[in-house]
Amino acid sequence: MLNVKSDGTYEYYYKGSAGKEITNSDKWIFEYWRGKPLVTFSHFIFGWKETGSRPAYWAVEVERSLFGNIKLSINSDLDYYFVKPE
What is the arrangement of strands in the sheet containing 56-64, beginning at the earlier edge strand? Predict the structure, then answer.
């Protein structure tokens, strides 16, 4: 679960299939890069085996789903996204 707050902070919670839990929070900024909307999360930890558990900056383009929901791509090849509920 990713909760992006209007005060410029975020909260992230993930529980893996093996029971490992990741919780972190920090700041985010919104900007346009090369004409596209971009959100950059500070010290983000996915906590997955493929990404490791070290904090890093995560810059992601803001997109819209077919139904108009805001989505952030985690892995577009595998069709993994964070999608904002209506």
Answer: 2-4, 9-15, 21-33, 36-44, 56-64, 70-75, 80-83
> Is the model's pLDDT at 50 over the cut of 90?
no
**Is 90 exceeded by the pLDDT of residue 81?**
no
What span, in angstroms and rounded, lies between the C-alpha atoms of 35 and 82? 22
Residues forming a β-bridge with 24: 12
User: For all residues of the chain together, what is the average pLDDT?
Assistant: 91
Q: Which residue has the tokens 């929901």?
A: 69
Using the 8-state DSSP alphabet, how is residue 46 labeled?
A: -
Residue 86 confidence (pLDDT) above 80: no
- Where residue 68 falls (left for φ over 0; alpha for ψ -120 to 50; beta otherwise) is left
In the chain, the number of structural domains is 1
- Single out the residue of 61, 54, 20 nearest to residue 40, CA to CA: 61
